[in-house]
Structure formats: C-alpha cells, structure tokens
Amino acid sequence: MTAVPEALFRELLPQIEDAIELKLVLYLLWRVARQERPVPFVRRSEVVADTTFMESLGNDEPARIKALDRAFDQAVERGVAFVASAAGDALYLLNTPKGRAALQGYEQGQWSPDAFADVRLELGTQRPNIFELYEQNIGPLTPMIAESLRDAEAEYPYEWVEEAVRIALENNVRKWRYVEAILKSWQEKGRNDRKDQQDTEKERRKYVEGEFSDYIES
C-alpha cells in the first residue's frame, strides 16, 4: 500500500484540472514511499527513466517530456513540491515535513544528492506481495502468520521485508520470527546498506550470532 495524505483529497483534488499533474503527484508519492534513500528527493532523470510511466504521458518522446515538465511546473507552482538544481538535473521534494526538512538541509549544505545513487523503480516491475513472498520463500501461510505479515506490511518498507527474507534464506533459516527479529533490529538500530560489503563472512555472521542466534535454534 502507498499512503496518500488527506490534504490531497480535501485541498488538491478540487484544484487540479490537469490529469497528468495528478498522475505525477500520485507517482511521486508512490516513488518516495518505495525508495530506500534516507532523503526523500526524486531526480527528474529518474522519472524520465521509468518507461512505463513516461509512455502514459504522450504518444512520442518530445510530447512526453513536454507533458512531464509542464506537470512538474504545475506541481511546484501549486506548492505540492519543491524543486532544486543539482549537477544538471532537477531534484523534486514533496511539500511534507520530511520534504521541507530535506530541502532546508540541502540549501544549508548538510547533504548532497551526489552521495546517493539513482533509484531504479518502474511501475511496470512486478513483484510478489508480502504473502506471496512468505509462501515462496518460507512456508505455507497460517492465520497467525498472516496477521503478523499484515502488521509487518504496515510497519516496515517492503524492501526491508524482502531483504530480511533474503538474509534468512542465505542463512538457511526459514522462520518468520527470525525475519521479524531482523526487521525490529533495523528499526531500533538502523539498517546498513548491504551493497558492496567487503567482508561478506563478517556480514553473514552478524545475522547468525548474538541477538539472532535464539531465533535460529528455537
């Protein structure tokens, strides 16, 4: 699920007349909710790279780009989003508490978009929901497990659940309690990016020793 602010229905929906602007606003909400970047910005180039989304904006490439830029301009003018320039690209941040804080931090030099790689997300990319993910990798669903999965879906980003399940498989631990322990640990202590890990054995042992060992043995 993707959360949509109440203000979009009460304040923006009566004002927005351009369907492409509304489509872009909903797309940005979806994209920000699914990217793991700690700073909630979206590069214009990332949107352009989403073939499925772009094809919905026009019949040819120039028309799509023109429609996209017009929708971005309308969203900024309406106060739905903020725009900043960086390295020849445009950064867009939604007008939310996190977005406003991120924009202020950017303007004060507290963070740089260069520190974050592009986020590859496409509307056309299909992935299993949390219940399918469990059944495909851990085991058959039970009513109790289904309730736990619903709670996890509401509390954690899907990417976290997907990564925690992957760690469980790597360590041959097909137990939801183990996956939950990883998720709770990330929530309490922070989640380190597992990409480009130099010491893979050390990384693996982190999830089979200490606080996680009880879930493996039980």
Describe the structure.
The structure is a single chain. The chain is mainly alpha-helical and 218 residues long. The chain is built from 12 helices and 3 strands, in the order ααβαααββααααααα. It has helices at 6-12, 19-34, 44-48, 51-55, 61-78, 97-107, 130-137, 143-155, 158-170, 176-189, 200-206, 213-217; strands at 41-43, 81-86, 89-94. It has a 3-stranded antiparallel sheet with strand order 1-3-2, sandwiched between helices. β2 (81-86) and β3 (89-94) form a beta hairpin. α2 packs across α5, α7 runs parallel beside α9 (158-170) and α9 crosses α10 (176-189). The chain starts with 5 loop residues before the first helix and ends with a helix. Mean pLDDT is 86; it is low at 194-198.
